[in-house]
Amino acid sequence: METDKHSNKEMNQSVKKAKSNSRWDTVKRWIPSIIILPIAAYWVVNRGEFGLLDNADLVIHEAGHFFFSFFGKFIYTLGGTLMQIILPSVIASFFFRNNYRTGVQFALLWLGQNLINISVYAADARARQLPLLGGNKVYHDWHYLLGETGLLQYDHIVGYTILGIAIVIFAVAVLMPLLIHD
Fold it and tell me: What percent of the chain has pLDDT over 70?
């Protein structure tokens, strides 16, 4: 009997310590989404315009070529794009495993931004109008990749498909408070 009283007392103390879910808590959960939505919309609407974050992404892209250089020309060429996808995905995964929703949201925002850049690069495969690091001495990654796979004539479709994936990633980032509860 005394054990039951002790258990009830502990449970009551535990309930008092637990956070109540007020309206303000609900609003706070959506603040990152409110910040992410206009940024994502801006990047989608202004696809093809490059900013400061794109310079960091370029370094990551080029590092991907280095890290995948040991696996043959096709994977070496794909490596830049792979690294742009892998790095933000690993960061999002880390935050997800640690139940840090805001970190997941911003990592997904970064992944979506990388996918927008990739979509522009892929859609430029035939035209080859984008300036490349290294100038005329280097080849266009997506011209080579789509040429090797027989998909070069579909470069715009590939680019817009990647853009669609970016938009889905942005939507998941914005709706994350519905998926992960703190």
Answer: 88
